[in-house]
Amino acid sequence: xxxxxxxKLPPVNCAAGTVALWFRPDWKKxxxxxxxxxxxxxxxxxxxxxxxxxxxxxxxxxxxxxQVQVFRTNPMQTGQWVHIAFxxxxxxxxxxxxxxxxxxxxxxxxxxxxxxAEEMSLALFLGREGKVLSEKCGSGLxxxxxxxxxxxxxxxxxxxxxxSGK
Length: 166
What we know:
Blueprint: E1 4-6, E2 12-13, E3 16-25, E4 33-40, E5 47-52, E6 57-63, E7 67-73, E8 82-89, E9 94-99, E10 102-108, E11 119-120, E12 122-126, H1 133-136, E13 140-148, H2 154-163
Antiparallel strand pairs: 1-12, 2-11, 3-8, 3-13, 4-5, 4-12, 5-6, 6-7, 8-9, 9-10
C-alpha cells in the first residue's frame, strides 16, 4: 500500500467536525492498522484517528485536547467497501461513529473538548503518520474522503453513504 499525507490543509474551525470516506480493507495479517488520522500542524491538541486493533476491534479517538474514544467490534471484511463517518462536537463533548450510514457507536465525555473557534490547519493521513512506510499504510483502498468543519446530522451521514454506494 501507499501512504497518503495531506499536509497544510486550509485552516478550519476544529470545535466540531465530520470525516467521511469509503474504505475497502485489505487486511492480510491480524495487526493494528490505522485507517485514517489527523492532527493540527502546531500540535495544539486537535487530533483524531480510527484504527483496527490487533484483536479486530475498531478504536475511534478524537482529542480536542481531552480524548473521547468509541470502541466496537469491527464488522469490516477484507475486500468489501464500507462507508465510514465520524463526528465530534465540542459543545456536546461527543463523538459518534457511523458505518454504512448507521450509527455504530457514541460516547460523551464531559469537559473533554476544549477547542474553541480558533482556526487550525490539519495534517490528514490515510493511514498513520510515521517515518517507516509500512507503519503508515492504511491497508486498503480509499475513495471520496471528505472533511467538514461541523458535525453532520445523521440524515446527512446516511445521504453520504447512499450517494456513491459501492
